[in-house]
């Protein structure tokens, strides 16, 4: 029995250390400080429309996902903290409802935000189709989506002349296969290479070109070629995009939301603890300590993962404080029933936990499944943030209920006296 009290003391000490970690790491510049989303930290919200009219409907989802990845790499390269780049589908408009949301926390200068996105080129290959007056080009389906990397080389030139810059393109495995098929089926035709819809080279296909490599030659200077290579490596956009709207969120609004959420969380916590103590007496005090451990552990997890906290995430966390007592209530009610049947205090606590466990497990498992589906199919960062905090909260509440609460109850229930039994429930003698 002495080991139970030692273990309980260790749990309380560990809870204090975790709380100390949470408190002391919340300083500016600390790598473990909370990470806040745009709605709390302030920043810039950009909405881009993607022109997918030239794509087959079946290719649009992959193109949009590729576009998201490219823009995300581009933003990360400029050092923007915790950016959010997200595909939005199903809207209306000339862009077919395919849009890209870019949120840049901490960036309140819209011009700076647009510069961080930058102008990345759209690269595509088109076959020349001569007509009576001019040469037209038709799309081949080979675009920057299939580009793996670009590099600058200098090719040989006439004797005495400076080497001319040449851009070497290396495609992905799928892109290389597409390039091979295009050149194999169109020997003798010109293949136009377009950058931002501008023809920069149209070499004639002499033979099938395997290996997934192509070269771009043109009248550009070495510096222009270097910039093209840099932009292509930063991300050649699979489809053209245009800025539809921009919005700046002030940091002061976020601070107000954080303060309001903290106040609501504190009031909610205190009301729950007061209810537990009033109804369950000593077990209510234990549940309050378990709740404190739950809050400290949750906040530490948010810092260590890290979880990007949004208004929705804070709402989920505050809601989870109330849900965290569900397991304790089941355990306390079961313990009361055992005490009413004449069991000893320690035996009643053990049986209360054992008999409540199945209900606790099933209810929490159903909540975890719901939260996981919500996160997987939510589609927006708002819903996913809520679901992530919700699932973490359910897991941690179950852990604190079956470890912290149980250990503390066993430690204080060692002396089976009439007073101790009365402190464990209303009307129990």
Commentary on this structure:
There is one protein chain. The mean pLDDT is 81. The strands form four sheets. A four-stranded antiparallel β-sheet has the order 3-4-2-12. A four-stranded antiparallel β-sheet has the order 6-5-9-10, covered by helices on one side. The protein is an alpha+beta fold and 429 residues long. It contains 13 helices and 13 strands. It has helices at 2-24, 38-41, 60-77, 110-117, 173-185, 222-235, 251-280, 282-304, 311-323, 326-340, 345-377, 381-412, 418-423, and strands spanning 35-36, 43-50, 84-88, 99-105, 123-130, 135-143, 147-155, 164-171, 191-195, 198-201, 213-216, 241-249, 308-309. Helix content is 54%, strand content 19%. A hairpin with a 4-residue loop joins strand 5 (123-130) and strand 6. It folds into three domains: 2-37 and 250-423, Multidrug efflux transporter AcrB transmembrane domain (Multidrug efflux transporter AcrB transmembrane fold, Up-down Bundle), CATH 1.20.1640; 38-120 and 242-249, Alpha-Beta Plaits, CATH 3.30.70; 123-239, Gyrase A, domain 2, CATH 3.30.1360. Helix 1 packs antiparallel against helix 12, helix 8 crosses helix 12 and helix 11 packs antiparallel against helix 12.
């Amino acid at each position: 029995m002495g080991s139970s009290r030692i273990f309980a003391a260790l749990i309380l000490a560990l809870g204090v250390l975790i709380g100390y970690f949470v408190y002391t790491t919340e300083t500016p510049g600390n790598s473990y400080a909370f990470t806040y989303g745009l709605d709390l930290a302030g920043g810039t919200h950009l909405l881009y429309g993607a022109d997918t009219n030239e794509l087959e409907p079946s290719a649009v989802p992959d193109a949009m996902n590729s576009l998201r990845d490219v823009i995300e790499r581009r933003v990360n390269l400029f050092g923007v903290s915790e950016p959010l780049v997200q595909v939005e589908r199903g809207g209306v408009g000339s862009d077919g409802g395919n849009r890209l949301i870019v949120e840049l926390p901490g960036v309140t200068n819209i011009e700076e935000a647009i510069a961080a996105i930058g102008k990345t080129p759209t690269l595509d290959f088109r076959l020349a189709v001569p007509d009576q007056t001019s040469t037209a080009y038709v799309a081949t389906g080979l675009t920057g989506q299939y580009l793996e990397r670009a590099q600058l080389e200098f090719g040989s030139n006439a004797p005495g002349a400076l080497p001319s810059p040449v851009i070497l393109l290396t495609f992905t495995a799928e892109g290389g296969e597409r390039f091979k098929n295009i050149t194999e089926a169109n020997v003798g035709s010109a293949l136009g290479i377009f950058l931002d819809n501008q023809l920069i080279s149209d070499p004639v296909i002499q033979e099938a070109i395997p290996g997934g490599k192509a070269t771009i030659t043109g009248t550009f200077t070495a510096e222009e070629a270097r910039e093209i290579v840099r932009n292509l490596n930063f991300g050649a956009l699979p489809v053209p995009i245009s800025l539809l709207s921009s919005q700046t969120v002030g940091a002061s609004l976020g601070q107000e939301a954080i303060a309001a959420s903290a106040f609501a969380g504190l009031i909610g916590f205190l009301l729950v603890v007061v209810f537990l103590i009033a109804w369950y007496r000593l077990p209510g005090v234990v549940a309050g300590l378990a709740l404190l451990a739950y809050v400290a552990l949750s906040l530490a997890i948010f810092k260590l993962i890290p979880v990007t906290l949004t208004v929705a995430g804070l709402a989920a966390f505050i809601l989870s404080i109330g849900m965290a007592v569900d397991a304790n209530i089941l355990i306390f009610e079961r313990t009361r029933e055992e005490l009413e049947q004449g069991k000893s205090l320690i035996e009643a606590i053990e049986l209360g936990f054992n008999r409540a466990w199945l209900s606790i497990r099933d209810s929490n498992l159903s909540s975890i499944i719901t939260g996981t589906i919500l996160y997987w199919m939510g589609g927006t960062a708002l819903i996913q943030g809520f679901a992530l905090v919700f699932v973490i909260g359910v897991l941690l509440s179950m852990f604190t209920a079956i470890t912290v609460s149980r250990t503390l109850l066993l430690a204080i229930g060692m002396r089976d006296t009439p007073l101790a039994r009365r402190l464990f429930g209303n009307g129990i003698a």
